Amino acid sequence: MKLPNALPQEQLHGRRVFVYKNLHQGCWSIKDRQTGHVVAHADRVELSDVELKVSQAGRRRVLEEQRKNVHAGVVGTLEGVRLSGYPSRRYVHGQAGQTSGQPQLVTYNPYKYSSFVNKADETPVRTAERAILDADGKSVWVFSPNA
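Now predict its structure.
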């Protein structure tokens, strides 16, 4: 799918973005926080200075209509990306060695939780030092999470 507001890969690094699971394209959609436009689709995304956001109004709509909508995602500074459809130009600014602690898997299900939660113990997670939105299109791993 062609994105009318797509940015070249080299212009994505360092931008503050909102990333969410795109159910139609089977990838992660990256929305520029400054312009509000989707600027890329990615298989894998690495973010720093992370906030895990859930719009409660959007969640209420999901519960009332029993139909999914974009109301939750991860906000952060884009550190690395593997763009969908560009196998020859994939890259990741690997910073895993600079992060303390083990990654923790977080999840969000609007029918069960009002926020993102740690998958292991279901405690809320609202911020983290870093996050990796994995190439499987559904896993969100965070480093140094906070409630």
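Confidence is low (pLDDT under 50) at residues 86-97.
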